């Protein structure tokens, strides 16, 4: 029995090069087509803001393209594997390798190793570039493609309820006692009836609540606007009610999201959905490692038997079935129906076993 993981250095480099070139070519084509379609749909909104032009369109492309790369990289690896193995099979190169004693696992080994490198690069790309692009694009879209808020880490458009009253904050910057609120509006309600609206450009936390600086009060019952000295609202409202009210896992790096989850747990807030996103930041890029195994069925069998197309369809079906299961698990984790670790890792483990079973039963 041949227990070597790689058949030979020459074969490994040859297959890795074919696989990587084809996967990157497919990825470039997908991103180019999808970016064009996306830009056609969003260009009107971008240009609708006064003063926006070609520079803002290219800026939008620079923020949206990393998201498309991260989302469709596993699809590109799947299609790149199918194209590579189908081509090798069609040219009888797979038959020649198997006749020389190379096993199916040794044929796929160079592709799996290249996928491990791709997965590692994908994790770094997602953590360092995609999260920042997502945070900036989200903030830009919230202001209708106008001037981007000065702080990317700011929580924007936050609503907090205390008894019958409501507080709306445009931006909450900082953490803990150093948190500062900008554009705060306090809605004083008596049951279902609105009695007063108080607005201030900024507020800071003080003992007993939040101090509004230079507030304007509108008395709804009398229809009178008056200027008020500094006043305190929001008694017993902690800073995390503003800064952690809407944590977007996609806009935070792995470390930043882990810190936010720890803060939420300390505040007694639910974190199951964010923990699912945290684990998926690892399992998502690792899906590229599964693609050669799931699509490997396309590389074997006799090409002249007429079943090469059927094998390619089976490989593609297994790959897309994984993406469906992965999205389903992520959705169940966000809803709290599955534990976070199970939601993020169950599809990966399941299809790893399925891919190995198919490969062993059909080729080994």
List the SSEs and their pairings.
Blueprint: H1 9-48, H2 54-90, H3 93-99, H4 104-142, E1 155-162, E2 165-173, E3 180-190, E4 193-206, E5 209-213, E6 216-219, E7 224-227, E8 231-233, H5 240-243, H6 254-266, H7 272-295, H8 308-335, H9 340-363
Antiparallel strand pairs: 1-2, 2-3, 3-4, 4-5, 4-6, 5-8, 6-7
Please sum up the structure shown.
This protein is 59% helix and 16% strand.
Question: What's the total helix number?
Answer: 9
Counting copies of identical and different chains, the oligomeric state is single chain
Stretches with pLDDT under 50, minimum 5 residues: none
For the CA atoms, what is the radius of gyration? 27 Å
Mean pLDDT figure: 85
> Roughly what fraction of the amino acids lie in strands?
15-25%
Q: What's the overall geometry?
A: elongated
Helix content: 55-70%
CA-to-CA gap between the ends? 11 Å
Structure description:
This protein has 364 residues and is α+β, with helices and mostly antiparallel strands. It has nine helices and eight strands. Strands 1, 2, 3, 4, 5, 6, 7 and 8 form an eight-stranded antiparallel β-sheet that branches. A hairpin with a 2-residue loop joins strand 1 and strand 2. The longest helix has 40 residues. The protein is elongated and about 90 Å long.
């Amino acid at each position: 029995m041949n227990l070597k993981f790689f058949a030979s250095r020459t074969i490994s480099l040859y297959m890795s090069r074919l696989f990587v070139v084809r996967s990157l070519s497919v990825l470039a084509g997908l991103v180019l087509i999808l970016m064009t379609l996306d830009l056609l749909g969003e260009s009107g909104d971008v240009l609708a803001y006064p003063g926006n032009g070609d520079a803002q369109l290219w800026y939008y492309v620079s923020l949206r393209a990393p998201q498309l790369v991260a989302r469709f990289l596993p699809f590109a690896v799947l299609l790149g594997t199918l194209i590579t193995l189908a081509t090798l099979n069609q040219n009888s190169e797979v038959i020649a390798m198997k006749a020389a004693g190379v096993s199916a696992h040794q044929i796929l080994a160079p592709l799996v190793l290249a996928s491990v490198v791709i997965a590692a690069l994908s994790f770094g790309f997602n953590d360092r570039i995609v999260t920042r692009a997502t945070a900036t694009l989200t903030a830009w879209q919230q202001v209708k493609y106008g001037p981007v808020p000065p702080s990317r880490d700011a929580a924007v458009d936050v609503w907090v309820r205390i008894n019958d009253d409501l507080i709306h904050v445009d931006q909450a910057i900082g953490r803990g006692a150093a948190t500062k609120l900008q554009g705060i509006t306090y809605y004083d309600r008596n049951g279902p009836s609105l009695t007063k609206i108080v607005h201030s450009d900024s507020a800071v936390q003080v003992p007993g609540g939040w101090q509004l600086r230079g507030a304007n009060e509108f008395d709804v019952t009398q229809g009178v606007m008056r200027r008020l000295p500094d006043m305190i609202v929001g008694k017993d409202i902690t800073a995390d009610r503003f800064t952690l009210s809407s944590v977007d896992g996609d806009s935070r790096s792995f470390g930043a999201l882990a810190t936010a989850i720890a803060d939420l747990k300390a505040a007694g807030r639910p974190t199951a959905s964010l923990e699912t996103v945290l684990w998926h930041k690892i399992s998502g890029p690792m899906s590229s490692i599964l693609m050669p195994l799931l699509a490997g069925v396309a590389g074997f069998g006799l090409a002249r038997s007429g079943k090469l197309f059927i094998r390619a369809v089976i490989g593609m079906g297994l790959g897309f079935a994984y993406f469906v299961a992965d999205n389903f698990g992520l959705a169940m984790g966000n809803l709290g129906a599955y534990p976070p670790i199970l939601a993020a890792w169950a599809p990966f483990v399941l299809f790893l076993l399925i891919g190995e079973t198919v490969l062993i039963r059909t080729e080994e």
